[in-house]
Amino acid sequence: MDGCFVDVSRGNCLDRLVGSEGRLESRLILICPRCKARVSVAADRAFCTDSKCIYAGQGFPVVDGQPVLIDFLDSIFQRSNYKEGNGSAIARDPSRSGLRSRLHRFVDGDNPVAVRNCRSFLALIKAQSRRPRVLVIGGGSVGKGAEGLYRDPDIELIGTDVYASSCTDLLCDAHKLPFEDSTFDGVWVQAVLEHVLDPHIVVSEIHRVLRKDGLIYAETPFMQQVHERAYDFTRFTPSGHRWLFRRFEEIAAGPVTGPGVALVWSIRYLLRSLGMGEKISRLIAMLFVWIRWLDRFCQSRMAADAAGGVFFLGRRSESALSAASMVSYYEDS
Ligand SMILES: [Zn+2]
Question: Best exposed site among 41, 168, 237, 245 by fewest CB in 10 Å?
Fold first, then answer.
């Protein structure tokens, strides 16, 4: 778990417990990730209510009081992950106090793009609904720059991830979201889509659970090395990211981190490749941290072609971009 362009050093969920608004199943309908029948949640087990479904008998685990609504017959995550602890398949640093987390913050800096986009997301979604319900996918910790989402008392947040934390309400695999159609006014998915096997299926699920005109905010790496070890699969150019969200109308899109940050990451990974340990590589890479200040002088088109990551803020649409429009999308941006 290192080097993600947004903060993967996991923090506590600010002052607000996501699940503090009452029992989850009384707030929204949960459905079985395998057969889509309703799910009932008990203290130590959750069950599919369709007696023909395998999860009616086997049930779903409950970790730290949160149901694990994963179809284990069709997921990279195994039931055995959720027998004890928080269910995480890799080590986490929930306090953000470890040396690696602190070095990570120093080298990567803040994420002002996410802060600005979070403000826009909140303004837009509150104009559409009096008390918007927002799903956070990969919300085991607060995404870097997403603090405004958690601090806004007018937003009902539903936090999900593949491990339990104070920021999550339930655990699920985003390829099969355990929610009915049209449940959410917005979806926030930050530094997640590189970690799923099939991002196009995940985005299709996001489209399904969003209401008409619902909002999406996504940040996904582009020029970034492998992080979170075995759980890292995909990267997106700005155009590829736009195509991923082709059933959404674009409100804003662009680079998150520039080529300078990506170059500092490359130096660190080069040092790692030369056999230096993780901590030594991070310490030496700190000598080059000044390079990321060059990002402020980068030209937008060239910076987008070499960005560390990209973002997309959009609105659910009934139509899709045409393949033919993708050349002009690059040339006009
Ligand atoms: Zn079922």
Answer: 237
